[in-house]
Amino acid sequence: MDNEQQLPSSAQIRRPRISVIIPAYNTAGLLRKCIESLCAQTYPAADTELIIVDDGSTDDTGALADTLAAEHPSLIRVCHRPNGGSSAARNTGLSVSTGEYISFVDSDDWVDPRFLETMVGALPPDDPAVMIQIGRDEIAEDGTRLPDICIPPLTPTSISCEEQLRLLLLHRGDASFCTKLTPRVFFFPPDQPPRLFPEGMLNEDFLLLVALLDVASRLVLLPRQYYHVYYRTGSNSRRRAEDLLYFPPVFTDIVRNADTVQSLVQGRYPRLRREAARFALYQRLEYLLHIPIPLMKRDNEFYRRHVVAYLRRHIPEILSNPHLTMKNRVYLLLFAAAPRTLRILHARLRSLRLLRHNSAAG
Predict the structure, then answer these.
(1) Nearest to 125 by CA among 272, 242, 12
(2) pLDDT for 100-113, tens place per residue?
(3) Gyration radius of the chain over CA positions
(4) Is 55 exposed, middle or buried (0-12, 13-18, 19+ CB in 10 A)?
């Protein structure tokens, strides 16, 4: 990383128009808090538009979005569309946006009043191809703060796009567009097809961010944790406890995305080859730690061919990759040898630890 990045002085700060896109699906109980946090921004409302995209909600989300727009007619626009997933909703918002820069906020999250102004204040006056990233924290349903997934720098820091990719491959970077201020031209480059979110899959932020690193000059990482993630059970990436066979599709998508990025790295970022190899292995480890045991069968082709067989073909990489911990290596080697047996043992050990914890608490 470079030395501390000095932010522009107040006299240098531009006031570009910002489009904030809020995809919303069945979040009627949370949407108002999200929108009110955006209406309370210290960044001028005259230079902001909020675009709520109701993605075919079956609750009162769409009606609430219209109510909020009526309360703030000069600030909020609403798009109603059939349900197509968060990527499709974001792409709809992008298609009607008019801002020079784009921000995304999920409808069950909220932001600090200084969220937009802080990111705009970090824009350098002489480089329109910079992405700004601000810190985030995660809040559980009971209101407690969860451990940080991404630790922000202590001071504003400028990094290259290759360094950002390296951090992502090592699971130290933030792939979310919700923590970023992105030039609109990145999504709609002149004389080229639009670069939009891939529809019909999860973990979509990761793939698009990697693609946009080709056109960004660098990223500026900010220390303030002004984006607040509401960790809601039942969302796309969380296991529903009442459905023992439910396997969130995000775990399949992260494996596919890892393979896509590994191919990209080989052609464009050869110095990151070992980081990309580690990423592909680690994403398969995540898959195997979460797939329900009854789904670990030979007729599950993706599990058998693209996960287990992959590990067996890459045992030399497991043994030699410098970015894997010893614990990673042991788990990967055991999963390569006997995946179902290891998961059964792993589940029994977890149950035993939980039993002991409950006994001690009682």
Answers:
(1) 12
(2) 999 999 999 999 99
(3) 22
(4) buried
User: Whose structure tokens read 């470079």?
Assistant: 2
Q: Which tokens in the block code for residue 133?
A: 């990233």
Q: Where in the chain is the domain with CATH 3.90.550.10?
A: 18-231
- Report the relative pairing of strands 157-159 and 218-231 from DSSP bridges: antiparallel
Once rounded to an integer, what is the mean pLDDT over residues 26-35? 97
CATH class of 18-231: alpha beta
* Angle (CA) 63 71 33, round 5°: 70
Q: Assess whether pLDDT exceeds 80 at residue 120.
A: yes
CB-CB neighbours of 352 under 10 Å: 10
Residue 65 to residue 85: CA distance in whole angstroms: 17
State both tokens at 185: 């031209």
Q: Which two tokens stand for residue 56?
A: 């075919």
Strand partners, 221: 133, 157
Q: Name the β-bridge partners of 159.
A: 219
Residue 342's Cβ-side half-sphere holds a number of Cα atoms within 13 Å equal to 16
pLDDT band at 13 (very low <50, low <70, confident <90, very high): low
pTM of this structure: 0.88
Interacting residues of 160 by C-beta distance below 8 A, sequence separation 6+: 218
Number of continuous H segments (helices) and E segments (strands) in the chain: 14, 9
Q: For position 43, what pLDDT does the model report?
A: 98
- Cα separation of 106 and 52, whole Å? 10
- Which of 47, 169, 40, 179 lies closest to 100, judged by CA? 47
Residue with tokens 């995946």: 339
